[in-house]
Amino acid sequence: MRSSVTSLIAFITSRKWLQQVTLASLACIISLIAVACVGGSDPTPSVTAQDDAPAAAVVSSLDSIIESGTIKIGVPQDFAPFGSVDANGDLEGYDIDVATLLAENLGVELELVPVISDNRIPFLQTNKADLVISSMGANPERAKSIFFSIPYAPFFSGIYGSSDISGVGGFGDLGGYKVGVTQGTLEDLELTDATGDDVSIERFADNSLTASALISGQVDMIATGNVVAAELSKNNPDKSIEGKFIIKESPAHIGLRRGEIDLLQWVNTFVYHKRLGGDLDNFSQKWLGEPLPPLPAF
Fold first, then answer.
1. 178: Cα separation from own chain's centroid
2. Which residues in the chain show pLDDT less than 70?
3. 103: how many CB neighbours lie within 10 A of its CB?
4. Which residue from 278, 277, 272 is spatially nearest to 291, judged by alpha carbons?
5. How far is Cα 75 from Cα 98, in angstroms, rounded to an integer?
């Protein structure tokens, strides 16, 4: 037994055993390094390949319109003098003139797309129109869905009715009356927020129906824009239509799809240029009967 232990100790302490242990350790270390190198090399080519891959080309909306040669612009057809149908069945008005000038400056053909208040934003979102030029007011709720240009036309909304109705100077005086409004307009939003159950609000699909409701006596008053009321009063002098109070100043903006920054920049430049150059003032004189007033910054 003692001789066996002595032999084992002698082997352990021998140079040959140390050499074997050293070689084995080196082999293990080299193997580990090799495995680490092989394992770590796999992701590197894929990452490099991704970094070197060409980015997908982003086609701007402005370029797409120019390349197609046509721009689709939503315009009103029942909102004189901004947009209406003439005796020949053609669209005419302030907004139509702006749309025509915009297409000319862009160097493309113009496709007019008739819209009503309730479908202006959906037409943009579903690509039925590239722009909407339809006396559209801007507010935070609408801005969640679309972009707005700087103002291109003056506009304010108010309550209008016969001069026979007296004592109406604010929302609090509308109790007991029927008030007509075009569904989905800023007037609809303001009227709904500012009145209670004592006011009967009648909503109509478009401005012509709202105006007809006042003329026919279906409603006592209407909430609408100043230019609509002026046109209505001119065409129906026997009704003695007058403004009761102003709801809100709301200059008109051009509507665009969200995210189309390049097109927004071009439209803003167009509006700015035409305001300075007098083109929009000429349209205001022609359709609104007054010079273009100073428009707010946006």
1. 32
2. 1-59
3. 20
4. 278
5. 10
CATH of domain 61-154+251-287: 3.40.190.10
Question: pLDDT tens digit string along 64-78?
Answer: 999 999 999 999 998
Dist CA 194 CA 246 (whole Å): 13
- Confidence at residue 52, expressed as pLDDT on a 0 to 100 scale: 53
Sequence ranges of the domains in the chain: 61-154+251-287, 156-249
**DSSP three-state, residue 285:** helix
Superfamily of domain 156-249: Periplasmic binding protein-like II (3.40.190.10)
Residues 6+ apart with CB under 8 A from 84: 76, 77, 78, 91, 92, 93
Radius of gyration of the chain (CA): 36
Give the pLDDT of residue 32. Answer: 46
Token couple for 269: 């430049």
Which among 88, 139, 95 has a CA at the least distance from the CA of 114? 95
